[in-house]
Structures are given as C-alpha cells and as structure tokens.
Amino acid sequence: MSCTVAAAIPNSPAFQSPRLPSIFCKPCPSPIHGPQSPAPSSSLSFPLSSLSSFAPGLSSPKSPLSLRVNKTKLQSKTSTSLKRKRPGILDIPVPKALGFGLETPRRKKEKVEVAEVEGDGYFVCSKRGRRGGIMEDRYSVFVDANGYSKQALFGVFDGHGGPKAAEFAAKKLNKNIMDEVSSRCQAGTETAIRNGYLTTDEEFLKQTVNGGACCVTALIHQGNLVVSNTGDCRAVMSRGGVAEALTSDHRPSRKDEKDRIEALGGYVDSCHGVWRIQGSLAVTRGIGDGHLKRWVIAEPETRVLKIKPEFEFLILASDGLWDKVTNQEAVDVIHPSCVGVDKLDPLSACKKLVELSLSRGSVDDTTVMSHRLEDQLFKIISSLSILVLVEEGSKFIRRSHSRGAVMEEYEGQVLVNCSLRKASSTESVFR
Length: 431
Known about the structure:
By secondary structure, the chain is of the alpha+beta class. The protein folds into 3 domains: 1-73, no CATH class; 114-250 and 285-379, PPM-type phosphatase domain (Phosphatase 2c, domain 1, 4-Layer Sandwich), CATH 3.60.40.10; 384-419, no CATH class. Helix content is 23%, strand content 26%. Belongs to the PP2C family.
C-alpha cells in the first residue's frame, strides 16, 4: 500500500472548500506518465515524471496529479546489506592550502634556542620561552677589560617588542661604560656608568628601531663590585649563603616611579592585574622605547660595594627567572655547586634554575648568569706584589707598587680596601 498525498496547485478545485476531500490511502494501479490537464483556472502544467523524485505515491480523486513510487528489489537489497555490514573506512585526503595556483612553501619548524656557556669564573644558561617567537634575551661578558685582569663587566639584557634593543645593548653598552670608566678616577665610577647607559640609549634611538630592553650590569673595578640596572632584570648576591638583592626592579607599581611618571604628565593603570605606563609597557626604565621616552628613561640605579671574602657569587638574570623563583631559592640552588665543594659545577645549577622557572609555568625567555666573586677576590690578591709589611697593633698593612693597591689583613681575613697611586707614600688603611 502506498501513501497518496495531494500536491497543491494554485486555483485548483481540489483545494476549494468545502469540496476538499480528506487525505486517505488506497491502492494505486500504476504510475501515471504524461501530463494531466489542469483545471480551467490553473496556469501550471508539468509532467509527473519530474515530480517523482520528491512527491512519491501522489493520488487523489480530485487532484490532477497522482504518482506512486514502488521500492525496487535493488533498493531493498541495498538497505538490507547496509544493516548487516558496516561501511568501509573512507580515506579522505587532507585538502591543500589555497594557493591560487601557487605552491605554498612549507614553514620550517623552529628549534628551541638554548645557550650554555662556561667561561673564566662565569656561567650562563639562556633559553627561549614557550610563548614562541624570536629569542629576545641577550647577555655580554667583558673580562680582562682594557688589559687589566682584575677588571670585568657582565651584563644581561631582556628585550621587548623585538630583540633589536637587547642586541644593541649587548654590543655597545660594555664598550661605552669602559670608555667612560677609563677616562675617570674611582670617584667617578657611578657617573661613568650612568653616561655609558645614556650614550647607548641615544645611539639606539638614532636608528629609529622599535622596541626596548631592560638591562643589569656588574662591573668589577679596583676591588669594587658596581651593580647597575634599568627595568626588571635583577642582580642577587650570595653573602654567606644568604640572598641579598643588589638592584630594585623598575616597575610602575613602585611608588617613586609612579610619582615620577605622573609628574611628567603620564599615567599608570592596571591592565589585567599588571601595572603599565600609558596602558602599554610594564617597566619604567630601559634602553629604547622611543615612543615612551618621556617617561621610560635610561638612567640606571647603581650600587657600589667593596668586595669581601663573604661575597660568594653573583646572579644576574632576566625577569623570566625572577617572576617564578625567589632570590633565596636562586641562591639555594647555586650555592651547593660552587661553594665548599671540590668539583665546581655552577653551569648545571644555572640550568636547574631555568628549568625550575619553566616548571612553574614561565613562558618568558629566561637567562641566568652566575659569577664567582671568590675567584675575583683571588685574582686581586694574587696580583699583588708584596713589598712592605707594617705592623700597627693587631693590623698588618701590605703594600704593593705593582698595582698600587693596599689590602688589610685583620683577624685572619683579607680585605681589599682601595687603590693608591704609585707615587703615594701613605701607609694607612682606607675604607
């Protein structure tokens, strides 16, 4: 039995009330072929064969159209076979990228950038972050500066908005600082470093390149440790196993930095929990950032310390480390590998710090540099040619004409005090 349904024809008497019969099912003798004559008021005429695909089994006493579609044996067999067997797995090829007739070159898979360096008393591990893109961290080492074995300069640079500023600072800042230092006496070391930073910033801005860089540098000069920074790269020293931060991060959350920016007409606000200048940058000092130069200055903060025996090692690192690892944690990781052990392995400790930061969710580039200050102290002491020994109570003063340096041995400790000109005849100890 087939189900018969009436097809609607405009103005057809079959659909005029009240003569519309009820829809019913009845046997249909055979499919009707050829066109039917419509009602006098109808203007439509088409063969039923054209409707067989979408109106099966059409029949009505009053309707001008009637058709019936019977299931064939082939259809019944097909439906039975589909019920019994699962269709085969379709192997659909991956569609090619739309190249409009041009072959799209495959992009090479970028490798993770890792740098591991072991030098004369210093160790570096630098690794690109998980956020992808170009590695923006850089570092620099300038040992035996100006042919002086007791003089060295170390730096870590964290770029933002691209690596150009960090690259430039790593190449130029050391030279600019040492040029200033060599032309000044010890009293002008802080000024020399300040001028070196400002000169590097001016030279970079002349290139009209976007981006900027945070910097931290450590200068070993005339028995002093001189640490400077702009931005959120940080220097931490181990003093008898206790962490001591030698720099302070320059961020908009610092009250003095916020006040300085607002006094210059800028503003600081919080964007998704991060304080930013003009809604843009999360640091308040650095090299570059020409579009924010009015507020983002390149003037560093500097701290000078006399190198003492309890100064064990120094850590310079980008914020990729400090955002996830505390100062004391960093010291605790490195201390067992470079203090009081026969076999030193500070490089492995630097790698551990990088991995520790990554394991805690850091996606930023991370650079860690450690420097053994004990080695530097040994260089200073071993370079002295002792000529005179003067006893003053419990103090012994040893004087050298080879380097013009004076050091004091007091209660079993050797302390480097200051440098004297070769012509000086002083026998006293300066602090």
